[in-house]
Amino acid sequence: MIDYDDDANSRSLRIDWENREQVETETRRLFEIFPHLPECASSDGGKCPRCGSSQVKPVEREKHLPGHIRSFHCQDCGQGYTRYHVDPEHEEKWGPTWHSNVISFQIEGYPHYLYFKPGTHIFEGLGPDVFPWER
Q: I want to staple 82 with a disulfide (CB 3.0 to 4.6 A). Which of 47, 71, 99, 116 is the partner?
C-alpha cells in the first residue's frame, strides 16, 4: 500500500489547481502509481487500479444513494477505492460547467479525486473535490 501521509509526500502533493504544469506532473505520477486506472474506470470499478486484478469485492453501499457510491477492496493486493457516480437527474449542478456526466474515483491513501467519462477509460482530470464543479 502506498502511504501519502509522510511529510515529503504531503508536500509534493500540495497542488495549485490553477497551475497546469503541476496538475500535468501529478497526472503523470498518478498513472505511474496506478497503471490500471483506465481499466478500473472502464469496468465501473471492477478492476483494481493498482494491480489490475478483477478479484475485487464491493465492501459497502450507501443506502440513501444505491448505485451512486460504491466501495471496493482488491483481494489480491489489498488496495481500497470508492467510485462516485452523480445522479443524471442532478444535471443542473454540472451541466453548465462540465461537458458531460462524470464518474469520480477516490483511491485509498491517495489525496485527490480522479474524474472519468462514465463507462470509459477516458480520463477527464483530477482535483480536490469529489466532483470537479465543487471547487
A: 71
Is residue 116 left, alpha or beta, with left meaning phi > 0 and alpha meaning psi from -120 to 50? Answer: beta
State pTM to two decimals: 0.79
Torsion over CA: 1, 14, 101, 93 (sign): positive
Domain boundary assignment for the chain: 7-134
Q: Express each pLDDT in 51-98 by its tens digit.
A: 999 999 998 665 555 567 889 999 999 999 999 886 666 656 655 655
Residues 6 or more apart in contact with residue 130 via CB below 8 angstroms: 84, 104, 106, 113
What is the rounded distance in angstroms from the CA atom of residue 18 to the CA atom of residue 82?
Answer: 26
